[in-house]
Design goal:
Number of domains: 2
CATH superfamily of the largest domain: Aspartate/ornithine carbamoyltransferase
Strand content: 5-15%
Order of helices and strands: HEHEHEHEHEHEEHEHHEHH
Distance between the termini: 19 Å
Largest sheet: 5 strands, parallel
CATH topology of the largest domain: Rossmann fold
Strand order of the largest sheet: 7-6-5-8-9
CATH architecture of the largest domain: 3-Layer(aba) Sandwich
CATH class of the largest domain: Alpha Beta
Length: about 300
Amino acid sequence: MSFRHLITLQELPKEDIQEILNLAQSFKQVILRPIKKVPTLKGKTIVNMFFEPSTRTRTSFELAAKRLSADVLNIQMSTSSVVKGETLLDTLATIEAMQIDMVVIRHSASGVPLFLTKNIKSSVINAGDGMHEHPTQGLLDMFSIIEKKKKIEGLNVSIVGDIAHSRVARSNIWGLTKMGAKVKVVGPTTLMPKEIEKLGVTVCNDLKEGLKDADVVNILRVQLERQKKNLFPTLREYATLFGVNSEKLKYAKPDCVVMHPGPMNRGIEISPNVADGINSVINEQVTNGVAVRMAVLYLMGGGKKDEAFN
């Protein structure tokens, strides 16, 4: 890796993205075999610090680290000294004094992972910061696309939903456009960031038009917890206009790949028959998340691809 930290896909070179995706293919084979461990990070210590609720990402990073034989320490805000008034930096200084190697952090404030890189010696991995980015989700989404489509370059990818509040959308946009995909962002104008077309995407406020000829449909959750005001009349209206069901999915290509980063609001942004349909790779995304995070942790830990399984 050309970077000591993984904070954003915006600044991650295409070559590093490709290296992670290639290595993840090998680690996918590891997690599918009866013995799911390799000794590649034995002796390394990884701290998972999650200051927002998480199931998939937190457990995925923990499993990834353990399957690489690293020592893992999990810290949640509700059980840390932060609730007693200790600053985040003081908490990190205490932990780093225990000779750790990497910190995986999720925080509600955009920019916290970058802030940590300037104040601690350990490598930092962004597991989602506010409405900024979620780089490993973007990587696992790209990996899932390659598994089904064998490529990213030239594909039509439609990202549907709450674009304005989604860190997943931003990481996907940076990663997919960098790898050669044609990206549409689809949703109501109130959930669309200003001037987002400057990121190299096409903006569409009509779902049927947004799904037209899509090879990949990535459906995002409506993030009510991040919205400061009512940005659409009702959830029922949102589901009617922008919820993806089997009828609307017909506007995409018949062999399109349906994705969702989770957790899903069934019946709002995605119907059950789409979530559980033959086009869906939502469960595969969860499996792929472990493989991709194994690749990231291994490379951030100083490993080289040709030594990964020695």
